[in-house]
Amino acid sequence: MRLALALPFFPSAAAAAEEGARAASKLAAPGASQAIEAIAGLAAVLALILALGWAVRRFGRLSTGSKGAVRVLGGVALGARERAVLVAVGPTRLLLGVAPGQVRTLHVLPDEPVDFAGELAAAKEEPVR
């Protein structure tokens, strides 16, 4: 209502309003070529997203070429944000407790491999008290 009252006093505003109405009518009825162009653009973007996802899955796990000094041997979740992780640093194996903001050494395992079969046989031969 205010716009209708202001239009006679501002002829440039009236011309701008008419131009805006014409532009809106052109946008309201897009042609078939515009729809095909929009669909082709969306298909191209979707194809690009799929190609990038494939490339990341295919090439994302390349090694850097250098052997790291620390290897993660395994881990287990102890809580929502806490983990116990077994790592090897050279010949030494460490059991680490990992929580948000901190890493603690829980145990240092011996360097020599444990002979579980020999330990079990020795345990069976010992008398039970």
Structure description:
With 129 residues, the protein is an alpha+beta fold. It folds into 2 domains: 58 residues, no CATH class; 48 residues. The chain has 4 helices and 4 strands. The protein has a 4-stranded antiparallel beta sheet, with no helix packed on it. Strand 2 and strand 3 form a beta hairpin. It is rod-shaped, with a radius of gyration of 35 Å. The protein starts with a helix and ends with a helix.
In brief:
It contains four helices and four strands, in the order αααββββα.
Tell me the major beta sheet: 4 strands, antiparallel
Strand content: 15-25%
Secondary structure: helix percent? 40-55%
Q: Report the span from N to C terminus.
A: 101 Å
Overall number of strands? 4
Strand order of the largest sheet: 1-2-3-4
Oligomer: single chain
Structural class by secondary-structure content? alpha+beta
User: How many discrete domains?
Assistant: 2
List keywords for this structure.
4 helices, rod-shaped, 4 strands, 4-stranded antiparallel sheet, alpha+beta, single chain
